[in-house]
Amino acid sequence: MKKDEIVKKLSEKLNITQVESKRIFDSVFDVLTDILSKGNTFTETGFGTFSVVEINKRKGFNPLIHKWMMLPPKLKPKFRASEHLKEEVNKRR
Amino acid sequence: MKTKIIDKKTFSEKDSDATKKVGIDEFSERVAKKAEITPERSKEYVHTLFDLISAGLKKEDKVSIYKFGNFKKKWVKTKSGINPKTQEKIKIAAHNQVKFSPSSALADEVNKKYRNLKPNVLDEILTLTGIKKISPDIQNNIQKDKVLHNNYQIAKKRALISVIGITIFLILIIFSLIFIPVYFVNENNKTVLFVKNINKMFGLNNISDRFVKKQKEIIDEKKGEEFITDAKVNLIENRKVIKEYIVKNGDSIFGIAENFWQNQYLWPDLYILNKSSVSDPDLIYPDDKLLIYEKLGDPEKFNKKQKEKIVEAFIGVYRIYRAFGEKDIEAGNTKKGEKRIYDARKTLNIAIRYDKDLLNRYKDAIYPDDIAEIKKWQKESEK
């Protein structure tokens, strides 16, 4: 499933135009990236939690140049699925 | 769908400044501000949006949101795990897992703080020694290798030095084998014989022989013949035949030389050139044929080369006289033999006018007693 499909279905369900639906959709994810870029977490109950993890600097092997590298620390977005989502995904029809 | 509204007060109490937990209320408010709609509507929108995504994950493997990331469903096989509370082994049943992979735009945005840092290349030794996982066995092996390498290099140096030493020693031995017989010439000595044998083995026989030959050689007749033929070849070089002369009664070689070359002292030249037809220089018979060549040159203005040639001719004649004389003495005609030997000495004495160093230069070709005799004569003439 892709963005266009989701926008279309939302417009059908909420009785709004597709243009407006797309505008709201974009703003939702803008806000979400803004929250994550500040290092905060966002939890949608029944879906999961978006958070940011800091990964320490570490040694890694670069297979291209065949050398060991010191990789810098890194901030990485993380998603943790809620129990509800897990159940939903594993449901058998 | 389960919904749980987080109380704002409890939220603010729990979290301090660093990381803030954003709930649905604050979120929907912010979305409402940005999209310019009412917060209730935005809340409804957000809920339905995430419901749709989870519904999509049910049906399909992948839900992708452009410029945000992908939600993926991954099938995990049954595996064994440990319950962290009770430390018991558990079997985890096969199940679907939801995974989120952020898009590069989102990852960049989140990693703003460390964006400028780049990975550095580490020294190999540092990485080898710095890794904690490396086992002590491997570290020991690395140290052993270092020690072995050092030992190897030391051994290499020693081997080089020893090889150079051995070669110098061998060269000295070879040189000594060549030169020992030179300074200790004694053919009956066992050591000299031994060294000679060794020299033969290495093909050095000729070199050592040359030095051993310091002893006086006895001149034999055959060698004299060789000398004469050499002299003949030298004399014929670049000379033309003027005439064929047939010997008459009363002719002598001196007379013929006088006739054609105006100098009777050049007769050895004439004689050696006709050696094949005339064996005894004192005896020529009528009707013998003599080949007469061009004159060697003006005897008072001879070149060095011409002088050498004429001297060689003289020595050839000397040797022939000498050989005849000895034959006569052996046969019993001592008087005739002694006269021949006297003639031989006389010819040599004449040759000295062309080469003063003759006695030294042709040492090998002249008998030592003759040399002594001629030296005596010269001393007398000086007086």
Structure write-up:
The complex is a heterodimer of chains A (93) and B (383). Chain A is an alpha+beta fold and 93 residues long. Chain A is 43% helix and 32% strand. Chain A has helices at residues 3-14, 18-37, 83-90, and strands at 41-44, 48-55, 58-62, 67-71, 74-81. In chain A, a hairpin with a 4-residue loop joins β3 (58-62) and β4 (67-71). The two termini of chain A are 20 Å apart. The mean pLDDT of chain A is 89. By secondary structure, chain B is mainly alpha-helical. Chain B has 15 helices and 9 strands. Chain B has helices at residues 8-14, 24-35, 39-59, 104-110, 124-130, 136-183, 190-201, 205-212, 221-236, 253-261, 267-273, 304-331, 334-351, 358-361, 368-382; strands spanning 21-22, 62-65, 69-76, 79-82, 89-92, 95-102, 120-121, 241-246, 289-293. Chain B has a 3-stranded antiparallel beta sheet with strand order 2-3-6. In chain B, β4 (79-82) and β5 form a beta hairpin. In chain B, α9 packs antiparallel against α12 (304-331) and α13 (334-351) crosses α15. Mean pLDDT of chain B is 77; it is low at 1-16 and 210-219.
